[in-house]
Structure formats: C-alpha cells, structure tokens
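Field log, afternoon session.

UNIT: design team B
ACTIVITY: writing a sequence onto a fixed backbone
BACKBONE:
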C-alpha cells in the first residue's frame, strides 16, 4: 500500500493505466486470451512486431487459426498446467511468425480478472538468439571434440589447479588410461604416479620424481617440451603451454618414425662422409697405382724374357691391378646416381665375383656356380649388378645361420614384359635369369611381400638397416627387369633377377681387343697431370709408340702449350687437378683454341668425377663417355688414344 501511495495510485483508473502501459511497452511478447485460451483479446507491440501480424489480424482470432502456436496441443497443455498449478513460468515453446519464422520462447501464464472477466495473461520471453548461440556452442563443442579425436596426437587440457578438463582418446591410448582414470578432474600428479607404477613410461627410477614434477608444473612461462619413451618403445615428445587462465595445454606427439628416419639419415650422412673420404684417398691411391703399374710395364719391356726378374715384375703388375680392382669396388658403393647401362656377360661377371662372394660368407658355407652355356649378354650397369649379387649373398649368409649352401645360377628365359601397356595384348621379352639360392630358414608368407620395403628387416636392432633388398629392387626397376621370390620355411629361399637381354654381343669386340698389338702413331699429344711421375710414364709410353709428346703440370701451363702449339692433335688430361682449372674446364678452353683437337680424360675419383660432370654441358657429358679409369695399363692407354685419333668427326648440319 505504501508503494501505491507513493506513486499516487489511489484509484482504479491509475492502476489500469499503469497495467496497460507496462503491457504495451514490454519487450516480452504479451497477449491476453479468454479463460479457455481460445481467442486473443489483446496483444502488445512486441507481439505484433515479432510475429509480424497486424492488430486487425490478431484480435478475435483463435490461437490455432493464427498458427502462432504450430503445435496444436499447446492450448490443452496450458490449460492443464493452469488447472493443476494455478500458473506457470518459463515453459519452453516454439512460436511461429506469419512468415514461418520460428521463435523460441519461455512462456509464462497467469490467470487475471479484468472487469470481473476471467482471462489469461501470457508473457513470452524471446530466447531465439540465446538458443542459436547455445546450438552454435554445442555444435562447436562437438566439432572441437571431433577434431581432437581425428588428430594423431594426444591432447589434454588441465585447469589452473592441475585437474584434467578434457582429453582425447589418443592421449589415453598412449599411456593406457581408461576413461574413468583420465576423466574430468583427474590430477596431473596422479597420472604421473600411474605412469611410473605401471611402467608405462620407461624412465630411470632416480628420475621418476622429475617426470612427475614436470607433469605437475603449471608455472607460467614459455612452452616446455620433453621426450618420454613408452614401454612399447614408442617415443613421445610432450609440448606443454600455459593458457591465459593459468591452465596447461599438453600435446603428445609420436616421433618414433621421425627418430628412425633421423637415425637413418645420420647413418647415410656418415656413409656419404666416409665415401668422400675414401674417394679422396682412392684418388691418390689410384695415382700411386698408376705410377707403379706404368713403371713396372716400362721395366718389363727392358727386362730379359723368361728371366726371374720378369716373373717378379709380372707378379707385381698383377698385384697392382688387384689393388685397382679393390679400389674400384669400394668406390662403386659410394655412387650417388644411376650410371649408364652396358652389355654384360653375366657368366664372366659372376666368375670374377666368386672370390669376393666367398670372402663375404663364412668358411662353413659352400658356394656353387651353375652357369648356363650360350648365355645371352644382358643390359645393365655392371657396378649395380655386382652390388645386387653381393647384397643377395649377404642376405643368404644370414639366413644360413653359419652353414649350408649358396648357389648362383644363370639361364636364358622368356617372360611376359611387365612394361607392356595394360590396354594392349601381352608381349614377351628375352631375359637373362640370375638366381641366388640358399638352404637357410626361409621366409614366412606374411612378410614375403614386405622384404623389398625400405627399412624393413627381421634382424635385431643394430644388425641390419633393411636397405639391402630395397637397393636390389631399385636396381631391377631402373634396369626394366623383374624380380621374383620363392621361399619355403625350413627349406630355403631363391631370389631370381631377370635382366633384359642385350640386343648386341660383346664377344666379337673383346676377342678383337685381345688379339690386337699396341697401336702406334705419329701425331702430337699433350699430356696434362698434376702428378709428375704420371706425366713421365704416360709420355714415355706414348713416345715409345711413335707419338710426339708435350707435357704440362697443370691447367695454366697446358693452356700455354695449346696457344703456342696449334698442331696438337690430342690432349690427354686428368680430371681432378688443383690450381683452379680442372680437366673439364681445360677441355672446354682447349676446344675454343682448337675446335679439331681430340680429348681423352682420365680420373681415379669416381664420385667427385660424377659430381663435376653434372655441372657441365652436353659436350663434357659426351667426352666423359670415353673416360679412362685410373690406374690404366699401357695397352689400354694405347688403344684409347688410337681409337680417338682415328675417330671421324661428323660436322654439324647447317
């Protein structure tokens, strides 16, 4: 009564005016119906503007005819609530505007009496915007959870006190937590103790407390990361970042494969470094062997035939050539790119490799060569083929477990060409088959398809890289060949290499070379090398064959000789030379001075030579095809020089 008096509401008319003012200006959708909730008697401005009806359309119309309540059971439900409870508040309903827009509301109903007439006052609070926000938040939460479950990292969010707020299943899977253990409120410190108790995390006992403290630490600062190893040998890196509200976001990433690849890369880099070192040593070693072989051959020519001294010299030459062969085999492992294919006699290659294969096996492993007569020549890179045979032999040795038989066989065969277009009829191709068979343990069927995968190995850690057979497979693919595996547990394994048959024969050429004497000539030759003894040997050999010989100790001196002697017919130069001008640069300059000059290159450092070749143009690529490998013999030098001088130059077409 005091409130009414202060507002001077001492008459019914004033109270009515206040009621209707509040009714009209309320932001809630307000309406008045008859006592049976059948027709509208009054509606306010918010009701009209929100539901988009005019006052004429609204007054006198039933609630169902207006369709503001699309659910026909609403009036009956409202009347039941009013009858049972007298009034109600915040009933969730959906109203519908004239244009079909749905409006989410909280409905309040209150019986009232105006002029002794029983009526119902409705007030609807529009919560459509809030509903949309709630739905968006719910959708965002579901999307967030879906995103967390889809990533391959463990995710966990802790509150300021260290209690778990949310985590994904990957986090639980890493550590073996159940949903109950890693649930809302679980403390970081408890999870740390759980890891140590179950030995989920492989960590030294004296460092266990450090691990728990790291889980517990929620101090502000930059992101913190540390690694842990799980009992299944997986390696995780934990990256913790403090959030703005004082909690911690922790990401657990499985870096096991990354560590494996990094280790393989380090091994590869180490091998590259060793290859570079060995290549440099081999370059000097090949120069030394060239000096030894050259001087021995010159001494042999002035020694009495069939004397004891000649036998000693011949034995020394043979030993020096063996040293050159060993250097060549070592360098072949350090090649970094594919080299060109050649015509190869597989039988001859295997005969020459028999000693190397035998040395790679244990004394109790017997080696057998079953070489087919009239075997076709094949087309492949000889160094790559030797590597493949050696890799297969080493694999067989491990399968034999110390004793047994290793058989290497060859034969001609015809197979369907794997490189035939699938839309065309099958074509057949001639192949040379090289099979390596062991009597070892055999290969299980479930891993037979994986043996050519890089890094796959059944050997113990540290005893195999898993790269040997993948290198063999890569060589076969590059050679357009085929590879097949036959194996039976307890009985052994056969791996067959199928390499394309060569279209030409090498026999006629090799026989011709054997029968030829050292060819002679009278042309002028410039010999260039940074090793004075090698210059002396090459000059002496060429001089005894009738050539006029000029010499130079480096590229600068060679250019001076070329400028002052335009009649030089051929330049014989080393590739790797100090002083700023290598053999390739010298060759290009020589061609500028004398376009008709013939050039013979020599080198003993395979890898550096290949790296240099890749930096030059097609002309150097062509010159490198006839490159003379150090150490070279007198007969090889004589034949190479004569072959180049007799070569007919075809002029370029205009």
């Amino acid at each position: 009564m005091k409130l009414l008096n202060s507002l001077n509401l001492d008459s019914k008319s004033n109270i009515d005016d206040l009621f209707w003012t509040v009714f009209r200006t309320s932001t809630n959708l307000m309406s008045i119906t008859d006592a049976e909730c059948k027709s509208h008697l009054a509606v306010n401005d918010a009701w009209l503007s929100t539901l988009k009806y005019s006052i004429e359309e609204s007054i006198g119309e039933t609630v169902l005819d207006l369709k503001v309540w699309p659910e026909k059971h609403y009036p009956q439900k409202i009347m039941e609530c009013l009858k049972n409870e007298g009034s109600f508040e915040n009933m969730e309903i959906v109203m519908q505007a004239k244009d079909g827009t749905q409006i989410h509301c909280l409905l309040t109903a209150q019986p009232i009496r105006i002029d002794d007439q029983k009526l119902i006052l409705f007030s609807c609070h529009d919560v459509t915007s809030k509903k949309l926000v709630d739905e968006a938040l719910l959708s965002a939460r579901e999307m967030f959870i879906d995103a967390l479950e889809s990533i391959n990292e463990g995710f966990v969010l802790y509150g300021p006190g260290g209690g778990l707020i949310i985590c994904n299943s990957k986090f639980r899977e890493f550590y073996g937590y159940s949903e109950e253990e890693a649930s809302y409120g679980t403390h970081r410190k408890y999870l740390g103790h759980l890891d140590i108790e179950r030995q989920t995390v492989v960590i030294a006992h004296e460092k266990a407390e450090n691990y728990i403290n790291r889980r517990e630490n929620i101090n502000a600062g930059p992101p913190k990361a540390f690694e842990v190893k799980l009992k299944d040998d997986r390696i995780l890196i934990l990256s913790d970042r403090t959030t703005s509200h004082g909690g911690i976001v922790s990401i657990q990433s499985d870096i096991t494969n990354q560590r494996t690849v990094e280790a393989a890369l380090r091994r590869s880099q180490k091998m590259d470094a060793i290859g570079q070192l060995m290549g440099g040593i081999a370059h000097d070693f090949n120069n030394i062997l060239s000096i030894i072989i050259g001087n021995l051959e010159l001494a042999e020519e002035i020694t009495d035939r069939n004397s004891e001294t000649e036998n000693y010299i011949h034995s020394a030459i043979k030993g020096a050539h063996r040293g050159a062969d060993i250097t060549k085999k070592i360098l072949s492992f350090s090649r970094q790119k594919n080299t060109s294919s050649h015509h190869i006699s597989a039988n001859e290659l295997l005969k020459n490799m028999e000693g190397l294969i035998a040395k790679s096996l244990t004394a109790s492993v017997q080696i057998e060569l079953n070489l087919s007569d009239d075997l076709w020549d094949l087309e492949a890179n000889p160094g790559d083929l030797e590597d493949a045979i050696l890799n297969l032999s080493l694999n067989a040795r491990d399968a034999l477990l110390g004793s047994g038989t290793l058989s290497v066989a060859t034969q001609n065969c015809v197979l369907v060409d794997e490189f035939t277009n699938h839309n065309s009829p099958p074509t057949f191709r001639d192949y040379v088959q090289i099979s390596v068979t062991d009597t070892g343990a055999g290969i299980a069927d479930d891993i037979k398809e994986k043996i050519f995968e890089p890094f796959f190995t059944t050997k113990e850690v540290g005893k195999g890289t898993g790269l040997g057979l993948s290198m063999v497979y890569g060589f076969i693919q590059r050679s357009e060949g085929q590879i097949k595996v036959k194996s039976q547990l307890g009985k052994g394994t056969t791996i067959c290499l199928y390499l394309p048959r060569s279209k030409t024969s090498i026999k006629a050429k090799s026989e011709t070379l054997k029968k030829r004497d050292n060819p002679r000539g009278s042309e002028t030759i410039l010999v260039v090398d940074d090793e004075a003894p090698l210059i002396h040997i090459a000059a002496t050999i060429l001089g005894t064959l009738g050539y006029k010989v000029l010499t130079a100790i480096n590229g600068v001196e060679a250019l001076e000789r070329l400028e002052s002697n335009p009649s030089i017919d051929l330049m014989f130069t080393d590739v790797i030379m100090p002083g700023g001008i290598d053999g390739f640069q010298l060759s290009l300059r020589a061609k500028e001075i004398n376009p008709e000059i013939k050039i013979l290159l020599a080198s003993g450092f395979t890898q550096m030579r290949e790296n240099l070749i890749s930096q030059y143009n097609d002309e150097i690529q062509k010159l490198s095809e006839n490159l003379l490998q150090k150490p070279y013999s007198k007969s090889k030098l004589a034949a190479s020089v004569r072959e180049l001088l007799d070569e007919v130059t075809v002029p370029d077409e205009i």
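LOG NOTE: DSSP finds 23 helices and 22 strands in the chain.
NEXT ACTIVITY: expression trials, pending approval
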